Amino acid sequence: MSWTISDIRTFLAVLDAGSISAAAARADLSKSVVSKRISDFEAALGVALFTRHAGRIAPTDSAFALAERLRPALADLVAATESVAGPEAPLRGRLAVAGPMSFGLRHLGPVIAGFARAHPQLEVVLDYDDQLTDLGRSGFDVALRIGWLRDSSLIARRLCEDPHALVASPDYLARHGPILSPADLAGHEAIGYLNARLSEIWPFGPEVAPPRQGRITANNGDAMRDLAIGGLGLALLPLFIVHDALRDGRLVRILPDLPQRRLPVSVVWPPTRPMPRKTRAFIDHIADAFAEDPPWQRGV
Amino acid sequence: MSWTISDIRTFLAVLDAGSISAAAARADLSKSVVSKRISDFEAALGVALFTRHAGRIAPTDSAFALAERLRPALADLVAATESVAGPEAPLRGRLAVAGPMSFGLRHLGPVIAGFARAHPQLEVVLDYDDQLTDLGRSGFDVALRIGWLRDSSLIARRLCEDPHALVASPDYLARHGPILSPADLAGHEAIGYLNARLSEIWPFGPEVAPPRQGRITANNGDAMRDLAIGGLGLALLPLFIVHDALRDGRLVRILPDLPQRRLPVSVVWPPTRPMPRKTRAFIDHIADAFAEDPPWQRGV
DNA sequence: CGCGCGCGTTCGCAATATCCGAACGCGGCT
DNA sequence: AGCCGCGTTCGGATATTGCGAACGCGCGCG
């Protein structure tokens, strides 16, 4: 019994998704197909990749070790098959784009729709996930990132800058006291962001101490905005998320004149040589799209 | 339409074999299957890999470029899947062994049969071909080589040494005159070896000039021996090929006391890291098998 | 403590893909 | 001119794949 590319892709998908059911849902396959592919793959390799207990699976150490080698090998294979078409040949294959949820939903849709229309034979996959930290996960070609980059192994191109706003609801300030200077921040709590510590994304410089992180956290910017509107604390959020709430008064800006370092919005990709044509095309496309200031920055 | 591992393997096989019919024969598939896989692969990639004319195919430049990238990528994928089994797991997968035709037929059969019996889940492929020069051709894991190695990118382990004999038939010597000293060689012709120039494998050192290469050449040692027996010239051949013909007088040794550098017999493999377990196991096995002098060297 | 839930596995069945052999057209060789 | 070997195409048989239902398991909740 031998393995197939589908077996490998399915294995990596299950590892990423954490369960057969989730991987099946993502791949639009039935659970039985995914389950069988995993079993067949294990039989072909002669090793258990997952342990089974009470209708749950857990990856083995072998699974992680195998994935570590399969991902680049599969990427090379795919890159090889996609490299062979001439420069004028239509783009084909599969381009996976990752990005933050709120940013993606708001600003990437039309841009990527335009790109997909321009390349009808290219399969485009969007995966919006605020927790995304590892471009090495199976199948991603490019990612959008907000903030200063931690992973220096990736190549980055800055698209624009994203100012943040420290906000609170009027109700919150009425109950907890106004904030008239940076020193006043110490007496307040901020709604936490599950995927990054406040100090990591604090844009006002080290001389302004951030408020302490409160007992409320969320893993999504829109959720944090809603919690802030509900009066549960201060929130440091991208302007594009709070723009409307600021305009209609549900939130107010805290210390709006404080100078800040704007957070960059970048597209990043792994340093594959030669660069796949589809990756080049996408990066050029999105750079063009962001060449002028985004709408949420006009008038602020 | 997407491609499969079978498509890739079939493409590389056709490139190696030079025709769909030959590749089909080698793979024990029908011509129509191989033809369809090539067509499907071309459709999936959106590029022509072969040109067709009057029932013949020829590879395009794209085919060579693609193969150059697919071979290592496929090898990485296979290595990854084979790396995952623990050290005590039975060897599985596919081990391809290349070697010279005559040597392989005579001396490798029992050795490799023993190895195959010890590892019942491992598929073993033997490819005896005197012209084999490129271990990079698809699918070879190890090769046996006779002679000094040209390709320093391979790792070699010497198994034994292989003396050669310069021989001729009594009839040839009766017609062309005896050879009493090295200087007499100049007046004679040697049957050529299609895969190596005589000067490349001449074991008697530069101070002994080889005879000139004649109009008769062959690509196989046994064929050269038979041509020598037929009186068509001198032949420089491994002892294991001419051993029996020397014993029964059909050939006689020329200048048998001339000191020579024995040609090494080595097993070679590419420097893959980590070394596949199957490759390690095979090399150890064949080194053990050749640890004592081979039978054709006893009594000479 | 009992029930409902979500998970993964297995099985039978239908749909799809794969493989084979025959037939055909092409150009080269005798 | 006829034969040969090549690659392509097609219809049919076979094998594989994918699906949904049913089941057993342990966990969490009331």
From TrEMBL, chains A, B:
Keyword Transcription regulation recorded: yes
UniProt entry keywords in alphabetical sequence: DNA-binding, Transcription, Transcription regulation
InterPro entries with a match to the protein in the record: LysR-type_TF_proteobact-type, LysR_HTH_N, LysR_subst-bd, WH-like_DNA-bd_sf, WH_DNA-bd_sf
Domain HTH lysR-type residues, every copy: 3-60
Signal peptide limits: none
UniProt keyword Chloroplast, yes or no: no
Pfam families hit by this protein: HTH_1, LysR_substrate
Family: Belongs to the LysR transcriptional regulatory family.
Name of the protein described by the UniProt record: LysR family transcriptional regulator
Organism: Paracoccus spongiarum
Taxonomic path: Bacteria, Pseudomonadati, Pseudomonadota, Alphaproteobacteria, Rhodobacterales
